[in-house]
Amino acid sequence: MALCVRIIPCLDVDAGRVVKGTRFRDLRDAGDPVELAARYDAEGADEIVFYDITASHERRATSVALARRAAEEVFIPYTIGGGVRTVEDMRAMLRSGADKVSVNTAAVKNPDLISEGAERFGSQCVVLSVDVKRREDGPGWEVYLNGGRVNTGRDALEWLVEGERRGAGEYVLNSMDADGTETGYDLELISAVAEHTNLPVIASGGAGHPDHMVAAVEAGADAVLAASIFHFGEWSIAEVKAWMKKAGIPVR
Question: What InterPro entries does this protein's entry cite (predicted)?
Fold first, then answer.
């Protein structure tokens, strides 16, 4: 029996507020992160992801206060990422109430962070998030850091394979090309990652309609993450789930 596909609202947090833009630019305010998360919990979201989108760039720690506030108001699993640099940072997030911790920039710079986190807390707590963009000079995708500001030149598929080997539990696969456009996920990217790795893939970047989510699952995603369509009232969680269920996608 097929596992149910998870519907996951993503809350990008900057200076204590949820923001959303297009391709990481032109950010719009969308509200208080914990209030939004609690609303999505009540509406039937399966999980929540919080990303402090400027923590790595500004070289500061992810907010433990956010994790604690969320623990008081949100009763579904939630992940926090952004600015997580050490195993102790991961421990602080988990002790404050987060169910999982997402690593990105620091993991690329120090891949042992994945291994050490998985060994201490279990792979189920370690989410490898990756911001990728199509290569300009050929096929494939490259890994970007610091909220999409720095191109590492590293092949995304190679990095995700290494992340699996080191003990990550799942991926958040964010297409910078599609982010905020609401024109659909990068299906070629999702398929390539699903073919090369065995971990659950959370598709991110480009959701504008439930049909996009259906297509992402058919391409190989195990969960779909979205922001704009939920934050600005285009679709509710219930409407998305009803649409996907009608399309034959198993949802809770």
Answer: Aldolase_TIM, His_biosynth, HisF, IGPS_HisA/HisF, RibuloseP-bd_barrel
Q: Can you give the three-state secondary structure of 125-176, one letter per residue?
A: HEEEEEEEEECCCCCCEEEEECCCCEEEEEEHHHHHHHHHHHCCCEEEEEEC
Rg (CA), the chain: 16
* Sequential DSSP letters for 29-48: EEE-HHHHHHHHHHHT-S-E
- Residue 12 in contact with residue 36, Cβ under 8 Å? no
Bridge partners, residue 78, by sequence: 48
Q: What is the pLDDT of residue 1?
A: 43
Q: For CA atoms 33, 34, 40, 45, give the dihedral sign.
A: positive
Give the model's pLDDT for residue 62: 59
Alpha carbon 17 to chain centroid, angstroms: 17
Number of DSSP helices (H) and strands (E) in the chain, helices first: 10, 12
Type of residue found at 121: F
Local mean pLDDT, 10-residue blocks, the chain (252 residues): 88 84 62 92 97 63 81 96 92 96 95 98 98 94 90 97 98 94 96 97 97 98 95 93 98 94
* Amino acid, single-letter form, for residue 85: R
Catalytic (active-site) positions: 12, 131
Paired tokens of 223: 């969960």
| Among 3, 4, 39, residue whose Cα is nearest residue 18 | 39
pTM exceeds 0.90? yes
